[in-house]
Amino acid sequence: MHSITITRPDDWHIHLRSGAALQHTVKDVARQFARAIVMPNLVPPVTNVEQAKSYRDCILRYKADNAEFEPLMTLYLTDNTSVEDIEEAAQSDFVKACKLYPAGATTNSDSGLTDIEKAYPVFEKMAELGMPLLVHGEVTSPEIDVFDREKVFIETKLRPIIEQFPNLKVVLEHITTKDAVEFVASQGPNVAATITVHHLMLNRNDMLVGGIRPHLYCLPILKRQEHQAALIAAATSGSPKFFLGTDSAPHTKEKKETACGCAGVYTAYSAIELYAEVFETHNALDKLEAFASFYGPDFYGLPRNTDTITLVKESWKVPKKLCLGNDTLVPFRAGETIEWKIRDND
Ligand SMILES: NC(=O)N[C@@H](CC(=O)O)C(=O)O
Ligand SMILES: [Zn+2]
Ligand SMILES: [Zn+2]
């Protein structure tokens, strides 16, 4: 049987949510990944070390006793984040990054930055302390078309930040455009990007042709095919600037299948298997390990994992529905077949 063994991967961008949802989200991520950068967009958001610690403790309570999963915590930057907040975060051994949400850009981003330049003293401290800045890179101005929001953000917001703070480590999260790929590739080694599996597998036709598929609606929104092709080329290029971040973001079935549905795709149930499928489709299985397991920790200055997982070419069906606390969740590829499977006894 066809199989590949790779260093255990990490997920550098995930939403685990809080409360009863953790029972499911933590199990799914820990089945595949050793570590995950946990997004702080809870209600209320995780804005300081104390909150990050109690959120981390909640996550660890849902980890099976034998599972070795380490949540890497992040702080949500608000207009009130202080330089002292950053210093405290850098002193902790579990806060690994801070997240910039432009206010109003995405799910639970209302407390995000209303004026990015006002946070420059905070960025300066982050640069000094080597704390990475993770960016949801979309502008929010109503006059900017939703399909152009990433591209406009890069030119009007991100480029000035990087010019002002040339040593700041920046991850442009969940990139969706050729423009983002080119921008990140053109910058120094302190600028990187995560790429989701759904943006590698899909373009906007998949979401909109033949009927609207609310479970494929996410932010940044799926783009046209040429952008998808640029993401595939970046992920399979062997460049250390591009690494795995699922942006798995669960919302209940009820909140997705409605007149005004939430943004987010739940890929955590089968993420590494899906990435294996994409890399195989593009004849790049040999590039999967570095993308999934090396470039992320290298960028963050963390050790690579030392254990392995084995993926076997074996088809299996994703359930039509999963539980999310007391609610129902429709995972990515619900009811469909996936061609790769993690071997259970690893
Ligand atoms: N990606 C999404 O569509 N949604 C994320 C937020 C985010 O990462 O922007 C969520 O928290 O639901
Ligand atoms: Zn985001
Ligand atoms: Zn996200």
What would your notes on this structure say?
This protein has 12 helices and 13 strands. An 8-stranded parallel beta sheet has the order 2-3-4-5-6-7-8-9. Strands 1-10-13 form a 3-stranded antiparallel beta sheet. The protein is an alpha/beta fold. The model has no long low-confidence stretch (mean pLDDT 97). The chain has a single domain, classed as TIM Barrel (Alpha-Beta Barrel). The radius of gyration is 19 Å and the shape is globular. α3 runs parallel beside α4 (120-129) and α11 packs across α12 (285-300). The protein has helices spanning 22-32, 49-61, 83-91, 120-129, 149-164, 178-186, 197-201, 204-208, 225-235, 253-256, 271-281, 285-300; strands at 3-7, 11-14, 35-38, 70-76, 95-100, 133-135, 170-172, 191-195, 242-244, 308-317, 322-324, 327-329, 337-342. The chain binds N-carbamoyl-L-aspartate and zinc ion (ZN) (2 copies). One zinc ion is lined by residues 106, 136, 173-174, 219.
